[in-house]
Amino acid sequence: MKRSATAQWKGTGKEGTGKLTTQSGVVKNKKYDFRSRFDDGTYTNPEELVAAAHAGCFSMKLSFVLGAAGYTPRKIETTCTITLENGAITESHLDVKAKVPRMKADKFAECAAEAKEGCPISKLLNTNITMDASLM
């Protein structure tokens, strides 16, 4: 499977603006600019999209890991925070909360750690990945 996204940029790095579009059309001509990356802008930015990708990928991987262990999650909620410092992504932090009937906290922690390591986006990122995982 291959997926793509397109970025269009006009102008200088600081004063210019861009638009992002994904192959599926879910993201279509969404604006991004310097302020949305490094200040208080209201548009999206690449780091926010990486956070969405990591949260989504991890949640699905955790569901697969839980299923393989004999559990069916009722809910998995993952927030990913990407840290950008000095022009580099220095951390991706996953904060996951899940409702999994009959599951004990230690087994959940083990499954979450396996999902963190096995998630394709985790494997892609060349950065420190941290996680807080708890059952609801």
How would you describe this protein?
The chain is an alpha+beta fold. It has helices spanning 34-38, 46-68, 105-118, 120-124, and strands spanning 5-10, 17-22, 30-33, 75-85, 88-99, 128-135. It folds into 2 domains: 5-38, no CATH class; 46-135, K homology (KH) domain (GMP Synthetase, Chain A, domain 3, 2-Layer Sandwich), CATH 3.30.300.20. The protein is built from 4 helices and 6 strands. The strands form 2 sheets. The chain has a 3-stranded antiparallel beta sheet with strand order 1-2-3. The chain has a 3-stranded mixed beta sheet with strand order 4-5-6, with helices on one face. Strand 1 (5-10) and strand 2 (17-22) form a beta hairpin. The longest helix has 23 residues, at 46-68. The mean pLDDT is 97.
Element order: H for helix, E for strand: EEEHHEEHHE
- CATH third-tier fold name of the largest domain: GMP Synthetase, Chain A, domain 3
CATH architecture field of the largest domain: 2-Layer Sandwich
Shape: elongated
Strand order of the largest sheet: 1-2-3
- Rg over alpha carbons: 17 Å
Average pLDDT level: 97
Query: Could you tell me how far the N terminus lies from the C terminus, measured between alpha carbons in angstroms?
Result: 34 Å
